[in-house]
């Protein structure tokens, strides 16, 4: 299917480009779709080869098997973002102070959620540079992607079903995060998105109202004062530090894809021709308060830092 898919994308895209304005957006979109299909299939074939090398999964518990999947993930992400830079003209810049050196301890990464594919960017740019294996908790809908489904089930990661669809007795997000965090080593990094989704006006207002209904009026007022980010959920972060109390915490902000919320936004912005800027703040082991209320206030303090940093770089409307 590879040659026919690519030729079909070029042919149809070339014809539609004449009638649809926007910098060859049809051709770019079809090319990226064809590339992603081939990219996904290549990753599946490589993982099938690793499974065969492990005696059809008999030695899947060996350390080399996991290391091989981490290297595969890093190489596939590098290939993917090379294509993104070429086709969509998307540049990624990492603004990290020279003093940022990760300690020999498990790492919990807290990142804002804004724009399509930001979780891939976090893993590629931050965890790739540190050489750590990513541990991610994803929504179960991500299992519709075959390569992500297979890869994440071979790494210290998990898929979580929302409470509205979760069968009775199945673990929720908090229990899953605690289980993964308890198994973290100094070579791992657990990635969490405390906002729970991309920031939209509706979600932001609903989160503020939920804080008020729960009696957290002070946190609701703080959330209202933050215009670039959404009030974070503390449950997953709390579970992560309960499971790995010796972990360091890396707080990550990024901006550049903020306004890409749905498919219409992505279509309107093609080709993106954007620069994603990332900034990280490291908090060593023991820097986060142990008390639950103090930890929640600490998390809101970090989100205020993110809000100020993003607001200083937001383009004028």
UniProtKB/TrEMBL annotation:
It comes from Isoptericola sediminis. Keywords: Acyltransferase, Membrane, Transferase, Transmembrane, Transmembrane helix. It holds the Pfam family Acyltransferase. The lineage of its organism: Bacteria, Bacillati, Actinomycetota, Actinomycetes, Micrococcales. Residues 107-257 form the Phospholipid/glycerol acyltransferase domain. The chain crosses the membrane at residues 6-27, 34-60. This is 1-acyl-sn-glycerol-3-phosphate acyltransferase. It comes from the Bacteria. Coiled coil: none annotated. GO terms for molecular function: acyltransferase activity.
